[in-house]
Amino acid sequence: MPVLSDTSVTFDRLKAFIEQALTAVGLPDADAATVAALMAEADLQGSDGHGVSRLPQYVRRIKAGGFNVRPNIHVVHEHAGTAVLNGDNGMGHLVMKRAAGMAIEKARSTGIGWVNSQFSNHAGPASLYATMPLAHDMIGLYFAVGNANHLPAWGGLDMLLSTNPIAAAIPAGDENPIVLDMATTVAAYGKVKTKALRGETMPEGWMIDREGKPLTDPKRADEGMLLPLGGMEAGYKGYGLAMIIGLLAGTLGGAAMGRDVIDFNHDDDSVTNTGQAVAAINIAAFGDIAVFKRSVDALVRDFRNSRRMPGVDRIWVPGERSHETRLRRTSLGIPIAPALLRGLDQVADDLGIARL
């Protein structure tokens, strides 16, 4: 049987398709456009597990009442440099774009702005929001409680933690910004779902079963657990980091954490009360912006030009691979796997819109 190849689509076409689908299920035009742009941006930068691949799930949840398509996103606590934003169970992309904007505005006057969310939802890759302050000569930070628990306490079996991602974005001068976006597990669960969509196996070290044996079939992911950063040898470090991020992104803002987290992969209608936090740090509050950027440039070049071990062709700085992926996909198109395309075609047919 011949192996089917990916279909390539432009960013604009992908964004328009997502926007049409979200409008068809009841999102206001402006909100659909905002979410579609962020979802398509995720695919453009290579975050395939958090872009259009989530559309069938989002549509399913909206139809089941799991998302509020016309939320009243509002502030419940606010001080000069901080706020807690209630997302009213709206789509997480809308909530977090609002939160990032608030953090940036607060950082203009206070130096640092920090905004937590409660009653939000899955919002795509963390880097989407950590990078928003960059345009304002600010550093961005982002923390989130994942939307399903796949990680036990170190040495345990009860799933009490998620992939709980962290992202940071640091502006540079002539160099590209430094952008770190990572889960606190060896692999994000979105990557597991992408492997399943593509019919691929997972590398050993991503997941183990409940007896501690390697699990490589992504379609059996529910039978196992993700390994925390550090793997079998030093996973207590990743477990600790996941817990701290969950406390900062969830508990601090009155959002779900631990046993209260709803698995939105298997529950389409419950309110998830997803918690996230975004911070903006105004570089001007700490010194000269141009001097800081030149220092970042120099550091990046030192890393890139440092001596390499045998067999290493290049030393990468966080964010460079995503930048290259964005350039390549802008030129050649965004690849859509055959299984994903079939799912998107079904969404289009069900909603009465043109196929991708």
Automatic annotation (TrEMBL):
Pfam families: Ldh_2. GO terms for molecular function: L-2-hydroxycarboxylate dehydrogenase (NAD+) activity. The keyword Oxidoreductase applies. Keywords: Oxidoreductase. InterPro entries: Mal/L-sulf/L-lact_DH-like_ah, Mal/L-sulf/L-lact_DH-like_NADP, Mal/L-sulfo/L-lacto_DH-like_sf, Malate/L-lactate_DH-like. The keyword Cytoplasm does not apply. Transmembrane segments: none annotated. Its EC number is 1.1.1.337. It comes from the Bacteria. PANTHER family: MALATE DEHYDROGENASE (PTHR11091:SF0), OXIDOREDUCTASE-RELATED (PTHR11091). Belongs to the LDH2/MDH2 oxidoreductase family. This is L-2-hydroxycarboxylate dehydrogenase (NAD+). It comes from Bradyrhizobium algeriense.
